[in-house]
Design goal:
579 residues; alpha+beta; Growth Hormone, Chain: A; 2 domains; five-stranded antiparallel β-sheet; two-stranded antiparallel sheet; disordered C terminus; transmembrane helix
């Protein structure tokens, strides 16, 4: 099979623009205005004539005039057809009598639709597919396009992650007022955060199953749990118990319901981006939806203290959060379930089931070199976020200042991730990003030990800002890297395992930190109720984990860092992460 590279958009068997063919868009079942225009592929592959000899420019023009449709042209009595199935390129030439000649020279009758694998490097196909622009040929060829409707689902998934995390942070920023309102100690209020994190583990198996079916069932399940959980929390806050305080047991039940919703949306970003986005946009899409979760926590840290000036305001704050959560959850029922056609060849690859995935997860050292630090640092982040109010206030900081510190931790992190994600989308330098971010994160936890004692906002604000920027940049990188290393495992498997570890350790770290809390007045603690020992514990854990991800690609295992989902033009169908 002869072949050459050409930039002509009208060459035989070409890989064309995503919006160049009205017939193609029509056949995919999507209105043309829904198909997003994308840049042409960096290079396009021209399939040479099936007979020997070269063609003149005039003959090439004549062939273009005889064009029958996208990906189908006449050439000296034969028709060439580019067929893409499950990410594989198949080429056949159809003779004038209707028989089919495959690239190995075999001849089949006109009804024979078996096509032999064509020897075309995957770079040309993937370049065009990454731009969402592989055209459809006759006979059921796969169309690789991106659709504008994907943004509706992406925004909705982002909103759900925001409100789920805000629900988690409804009580922690005003723990002292919530404790007074419900007639419980602050340690009981901390359990509202801890139970929320542990609930993740209960619904995680159902999350993997539902996300294997697609993101929409998982998103709808989360929306239902958010709606019910928020109004149950309000019922417990509004209806007083026998002692005249808010009904803490009912509030805890509602909090657990919202916690059960968390894995359905927190594990969905990688699955959603894999289904709707190209390789050039997946890291950014995963970053937006994944980092929306801590952004919701930042909103809770910043807004809730302004809502609650005293114990009497707790019930109204729960009501306001329930209304906002309901408004954000309802559109989930109307998002599209899946694109009419996949965005890339990897979108057509059959995904392994959970039963098939577990042996691969157990046997991959590189996967655990990522999951372990990811889970530990997510757990530490959840612990510090939940207890930040109690960390700073014993040293004279106000609840508003503690809320601003929590907001800086997350907002600066979002900015850092917004800068890093597009760069990593293009370079795929995942290993280098992990090895740079992890030591910086550990050093931030070490430095934060001495920040509350300064009794000035500058120190905590500065350290938390750096901690947020490095932590948030790491989250989408680790999630996408896990997907690349374990492809064709369905993306929700590794993301759910990683997040489940983070939520479990977050709950454990909160319990340990609460146990390390200094005594109150009259115990000799300076200041009373400080969490200095908890900060030392967090720093030690963060430092101990540093060598784990630094071992990626070491000891002769660099060949294990294969980017299985990202195609390359070397014929292997894979590339390595940049060290």
């Amino acid at each position: 099979m002869a072949g050459s590279r050409n930039s002509s958009p009208s060459a035989a068997g070409r890989l064309g623009r995503g919006s160049s063919s009205s017939s193609s868009s029509g056949s995919s079942g999507a209105p043309s205005e829904d198909i997003e225009k994308t840049p042409a592929a960096a290079e396009e592959y021209v399939l040479g004539p099936t007979d020997s000899g070269s063609s003149s420019m005039q003959q090439q023009k004549q062939k273009q005039k005889q064009k029958l449709g996208p990906g189908l042209e006449h050439g000296q009595g034969k028709t060439k057809k580019l067929r893409i199935s499950n990410g594989r390129v198949r080429l056949a030439s159809r003779d004038g009598d209707g028989s089919t000649t495959t690239d190995d020279g075999d001849v089949h009758d006109g009804d024979d639709d078996r096509y032999r694998l064509g020897r075309i490097t995957t770079r040309e196909v993937e370049d065009a597919a990454a731009a969402g622009s592989v055209e459809e040929g006759d006979g059921g060829s796969v169309v690789y396009r991106v659709y504008k409707r994907r943004w509706f689902g992406l925004v909705q998934l982002t909103l759900l992650n925001i409100i789920v995390s805000w629900d988690w942070m409804t009580f922690a920023p005003v723990a002292q007022h919530a404790a007074a309102y419900y007639g419980k100690p602050e340690s009981a209020i901390n359990w509202l955060s801890t139970a929320f994190l542990f609930a993740f583990l209960v619904s995680a198996p159902a999350t993997v199953y539902m996300l294997h079916l697609g993101p929409k069932p998982s998103i709808i399940a989360a929306a239902v749990l958010v709606l019910i959980g928020n109004w149950v929390r309000y019922a417990g806050s509004h209806v007083a118990s026998a002692d005249g305080a808010g009904n803490f047991g009912v509030v805890m039940f509602g909090q657990i319901l919202v916690g059960l919703a968390q894995p359905f949306v927190l594990s969905a970003p990688t699955r959603y981006s894999d289904m709707w986005f190209t390789d050039r946009g997946r890291v950014a899409a995963t970053a937006l939806t994944s980092l929306a979760n801590p952004f919701g926590a930042a909103i809770g840290q910043l807004v809730v203290p302004f809502m609650v000036a005293g114990p009497a305001d707790v019930s109204n704050a729960v009501l306001y959060v329930a209304i906002i959560s309901s408004v954000c959850a309802v559109p989930s029922f109307f998002i599209p379930a899946s694109p009419p056609t996949p965005p890339t060849p990897s979108g057509t690859t059959p995904k392994a089931s959970l039963r098939e995935a577990l042996p691969q997860l157990r046997g991959s050292l590189e996967v655990w070199l990522l999951i372990v630090p990811f889970s530990v640092y997510v757990g530490l982040f959840n612990s510090v976020s939940s207890l930040l109010n109690q960390i700073l206030m014993p040293y004279g900081f106000s609840s508003d200042e503690a809320g601003i510190a929590g907001a800086l931790l997350i907002v600066v992190g979002l900015v850092g991730s917004a800068v890093a994600s597009p760069v990593l989308d293009r370079t795929k330098a995942f290993t280098a990003a992990v090895k740079v971010a992890v030591p910086l994160i550990a050093l931030c936890y070490l430095a934060f030990i001495w920040m509350p004692a300064t009794r000035a906002v500058a120190g905590p604000y500065a350290v938390l800002s750096v901690l947020g920027a490095t932590s948030f940049s790491l989250v989408p990188v680790a999630l996408e890297f896990l997907c690349e290393l374990t492809h064709p495992l369905s993306p929700e498997v590794t993301s759910t395992v990683a997040w489940a570890g983070g939520q479990l350790l977050g709950g454990v770290f909160i319990v340990i930190s609460d146990a390390l809390k200094a005594g109150g007045e009259g115990t000799g603690a300076d200041p009373p109720d400080n969490l200095d020992h908890a900060l030392v514990f967090s720093a030690v854990v963060a430092l101990v984990v540093v060598p784990v991800p630094l071992a990626l690609g070491s000891f002769g295992r660099r060949d294990r860092l294969v980017m299985k989902r990202s195609r390359s033009g070397d014929g292997s169908g894979s590339s390595r992460a940049t060290l």
